[in-house]
Specification:
mainly alpha, 2 helices, flat
Length: about 90
């Protein structure tokens, strides 16, 4: 069992979608996507290339069993990507 959520780097200045109120879940998700996309593209040398899907799915985690199921999904999901019809292996770093 993990002791907490995975973290992706240190905080950057807040950048939020124009239609998301400050402090809203949409603003937080937009900020995370913006920060991580810039960092990923800097590492890949692919300035401005798309990294994230446009939307997201939100869900309230109601108990520890559900949290463990979700964590397991997050860890194991990348192994399923080659079976996804939208998977683009040419975007994978070699």
């Amino acid at each position: 069992s993990n002791s907490g959520p995975a973290r992706a780097g240190e905080p950057d200045p807040v950048h939020r979608p124009m239609n998301a109120p400050a402090g809203s879940l949409g603003a937080i998700i937009g900020n995370v996507k913006s920060i991580t996309a810039r960092r990923i593209n800097a590492l890949r040398h692919t300035d401005g290339a798309p990294v994230w899907q446009r939307s997201y799915w939100e869900h309230i985690v109601r108990d520890s069993e559900e949290l463990e199921r979700i964590r397991s999904y997050i860890v194991s999901n990348p192994a399923l990507w080659p079976d996804d019809q939208l998977y683009m292996p040419e975007r994978e770093e070699s």
